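Postdoc handover notes: sequence design on the structure in folder B. Input tokens:
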């Protein structure tokens, strides 16, 4: 006679809790992080990936708080896990926001502000150069296994900030706000060589216009600025990957620092 498998309600509740709380944090990070959180990725894929990660990582997380899932304390923990995962994904997305900002700065200097199209991810018009740099950044991110490092950092976050009822520290949100300043500084550093070169070209054309008023700068200025910007951008492409690798490493470090700062 085969043995009968019996499961009590207490054991079933413990299994559901051990799966649900890590699953919610993982789903929040996947929904907001680069590559995984793009609108082109179907929701079923995001939910399935988060469920697989929860099943794989959940048994290594130790004992969960002895709190019923359907209770005030359980809902509070659920909300905390959503905030933690979303904050981690947002801190990594700031790196790609810096790349898009660099594309906006460079596009304005090159006279490509009118060359824009509707971007489904941002929900508005985006410059062509900004979208190009963003796609290149995503390809480099995948090439250096950045998506795998994000998942590894997510698994490590459960040890740095375990699931608990304790409220999150306010210093973590302050750190996230300060990390937003990296969008402007990193974007400007990436676009600075092109901005400086195009500015020098504009100054040269201004001096040429003063020396020879008969020359129509408005007729030749735009083609020269655009051509010069494209040539300079071509020279900057080999240096894009090393710069972005440093920014990706900084983004991953910020994810861990954010989790540690949120710890009460």
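Designed sequence:
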């Amino acid at each position: 006679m085969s043995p009968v498998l019996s499961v009590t309600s207490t054991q079933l509740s413990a299994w559901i809790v051990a799966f649900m709380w890590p699953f919610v944090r993982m789903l929040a990070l996947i929904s907001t992080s680069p590559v995984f959180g793009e609108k082109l990725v179907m929701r079923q894929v995001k939910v399935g990936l988060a469920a697989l990660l929860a099943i794989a990582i959940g048994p290594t997380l130790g004992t969960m708080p002895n709190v019923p899932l359907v209770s005030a304390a359980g809902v509070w923990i659920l909300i905390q896990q959503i905030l933690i995962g979303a904050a981690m994904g947002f801190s990594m997305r700031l790196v790609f926001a810096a790349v898009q900002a660099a594309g906006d700065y460079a596009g304005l200097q090159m006279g490509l502000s009118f060359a824009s199209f509707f971007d489904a991810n941002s929900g508005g018009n985006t410059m062509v150069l900004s979208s190009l740099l963003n796609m290149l950044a995503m390809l480099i991110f995948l090439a250096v296994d950045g998506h795998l490092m994000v998942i590894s950092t997510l698994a490590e976050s459960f040890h740095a900030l375990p699931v608990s009822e304790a409220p999150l520290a306010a210093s973590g949100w302050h750190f996230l706000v300060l990390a937003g300043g990296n969008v402007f500084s990193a974007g400007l550093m990436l676009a600075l060589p092109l901005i400086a070169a195009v500015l020098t070209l504009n100054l040269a054309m201004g001096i040429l216009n003063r020396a020879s008023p008969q020359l129509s700068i408005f007729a030749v200025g735009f083609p020269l600025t655009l051509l010069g910007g494209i040539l300079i951008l071509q020279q900057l492409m080999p240096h894009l990957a090393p710069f972005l690798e440093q920014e990706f490493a900084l983004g991953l470090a910020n994810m861990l620092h954010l989790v540690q700062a949120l710890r009460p």
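Context for whoever picks this up: The first helix runs from residue 9 to 32. Don't rerun without checking with the PI first.
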